[in-house]
Automatic annotation (TrEMBL):
Enzyme kind, highest EC tier: isomerase
Source species taxonomy: Bacteria, Bacillati, Bacillota, Bacilli, Bacillales
Record keyword Isomerase present: yes
Protein name (Swiss-Prot/TrEMBL): Aspartate racemase
Organism: Sporosarcina pasteurii
NCBIfam families per the UniProt record, alphabetical: asp_race
PANTHER family assigned: ASPARTATE-GLUTAMATE RACEMASE FAMILY, GLUTAMATE RACEMASE
Pfam family, one: Asp_Glu_race
């Protein structure tokens, strides 16, 4: 298989962008520099907030900026794209229609990973924007799994971890995670998807072992789609 150059549309958020680059390097089976995935990464922090637009809190549509970044990456020679933002995948069809390069479907791949693990009842943790669009719920349904979303009070804690902790450059609060984890256990979820790339940072900081990390799934899928092997 011909090796492909990967383009990462980043800045959504900035730390998750840096983290996926690190994951790809660490998870690629390589013995020397030349064995690694060739990547071009943007970190455009001017992309409007996806959740704010979905919830009607902002009129700034992130799609045109994402499409513009995708075209810049194509001009730079990339052949396949990854967007390390679950909420942005709410606009995936619209984004894909505006560009020529294929975009890895992070939501589909993550739901598939849950199915491969034998999940039947899957907890979905993500931004309120992601939850409200139902993209993970629909993906789980396609794989004959039941999606479970947090109650409103627990969702507020999830959003606080994403925005007040990680996006604000602060450490992940273990007490907040304890509340979220207990809610997922009470809901009898057999798997939990970290459906926000900021929650992937939480997973790293708190060393979570029993969740399906959407950013890790995206990174591993990107490695394989570019013609490389995962460690």
């Amino acid at each position: 298989m011909k090796k492909k150059t990967l383009g990462i549309i980043g800045g959504v958020g900035p730390l998750a962008t840096m983290f996926i680059g690190e994951i790809i390097v660490r998870r690629t089976a390589a013995e020397k520099d030349q064995d690694h995935v060739n990547m071009v990464i943007t970190n455009n922090t001017n992309i409007p907030d996806r959740t704010a637009f979905i919830l009607g809190e902002s009129r700034e549509n992130p799609v045109p900026v994402i499409v513009s970044d995708a075209k810049r990456l194509q001009e730079a020679g990339v052949e396949i794209l990854a967007i390390p933002c679950n909420t942005a995948h709410s606009f995936l069809n619209e984004i894909q229609q505006g560009i020529e390069l294929p975009v890895i479907d992070m939501i589909q791949e993550t739901a598939m990973r849950a199915k491969e693990k034998g999940a039947r009842r899957v907890g979905i943790l993500g931004t309120t924007g992601t939850i409200s669009t139902g993209i993970y719920q629909a993906a789980c349904e396609r794989f004959d799994m039941e999606a479970v979303v947090p109650h409103e009070d627990v969702q507020a804690v999830v959003m606080s971890m994403i925005y007040d902790d990680i996006k604000a450059g602060k450490p992940a609060d273990p007490e907040k995670w304890a509340i979220i984890r207990q809610a997922m256990e009470d809901a009898q979820c057999d798997e939990v998807i970290l459906g926000c790339t900021e929650l992937s940072i939480v997973s790293q900081e708190l060393q979570l072992q029993d969740c399906i990390d959407s950013l890790l799934v995206l990174a591993e899928t990107a490695i394989q789609r570019c013609g490389y092997k995962v460690k």
